[in-house]
Design brief:
single chain; alpha/beta; 6-stranded mixed beta sheet
């Protein structure tokens, strides 16, 4: 399964970025083989969550693994049929392991505040 992990760097040993929309990188990885492709995230001044959700949907990831996700990003991911798992920490490799072992919580809504401070 192709999953997207928010990261502060471009490899499996990079730290998980705790935010979705403004993460430095998106690491798209096969959850079984760990084959991966890292994409630098270049959020604009406004609408970072929506732009990021579109980028993930375009890559056809089945799930996002992150620390937190804001309301606009969550809405965009949900509309694209992408599952969101929050509470990830450590390295990208550790987050993939946590995902595979079912240790991450599937989000039913946004887990973080939006850019303007509202839930």
């Amino acid at each position: 399964m192709l999953i997207c992990i928010t990261a502060q760097g471009s490899g499996l040993d990079a730290a998980v970025d705790p935010t979705f929309g403004r993460a430095k990188y998106f690491v798209f990885a096969d959850s079984e083989t760990l084959s991966m492709d890292a994409v630098e995230n270049a959020p604009g001044a406004h609408g970072a969550g929506v732009q990021a959700a579109q980028r993930v949907a375009d890559k056809r990831a089945a799930a996002v693994v992150t620390g937190n996700v804001g309301p606009n990003a969550f809405q965009g991911l949900a509309a694209a049929g992408v599952a969101v798992y929050v509470g990830a920490s450590g390295t990208v490799r550790e987050a993939i392991e946590a995902f595979r072992e079912g240790r991450l919580q599937r989000a039913e809504g946004p887990s973080g505040r939006g850019h303007r401070g509202g839930l």
